[in-house]
Amino acid sequence: MALTNQIDGLNKKTTKTIIVSAIVLMGWSCFSAITAAGPWSAFFITFLLYIFFWCYALYFKNPLLLRLTIIATIAGILELVTDFYLVETINSLNYPQNEMMLWASPAYMPFAWSNVLVQLSFIGVLLTNRLGVLKASIILCIAGGMYIPIYEHLANDAGWWNYNPDTTMIFNAPLYVIVCEALISLSLPAIMNYSEHHKLLKSIVLGILLGFWILLSAYIAVSFFL
Description:
By secondary structure, the protein is mainly alpha-helical. 74% of the residues lie in helices and 5% in strands. It has one domain. It has seven helices and six strands. Strands 1-4 form a two-stranded antiparallel ribbon. The chain has a two-stranded antiparallel ribbon with strand order 2-3. Strand 2 and strand 3 form a beta hairpin.
């Protein structure tokens, strides 16, 4: 089914760009895992993609990608609270020593979250445009939950982070992280659909709401699946 182009900025060129960015991120994660590259590789790919998304949105004047990047950036910054909860409160998540840190997280972490949220959110918009919000939410929820075990496994082998051994795991992915990511993905189509019909400034509010939902999702997942 062809794109309807009802959403300004949703086009084949940008769709291909987002897909390629996801392939690049996964490919780099595989390389980092195979070589046990360590934190420097996470810094490199994170800031490369983050700067690219901003440049693409501004250069091509793509309002959709601009909204997604603003929302994802704010949510990524607020995710520092969630990381603190996982690292310092429940002592489940561990980062390598001697990294450049923001609070309890590596300095790249808010932007790494932003990159993944941009990619998932764009896919959510694409699915919503074709299938509607409800079906898009269900599909993205399942996809988000399935994607995480792969990424967590690669991150562990790359030396980016790991979890305490007493955590309930599926391969190298904690069960609660899979549930948390599924809940986050579930919310994205509705949030992004709402952002389409409002002024750009509303993206700030939606980014804050998404950041709080990430924390709430983590708390729910930890409470039932840790």
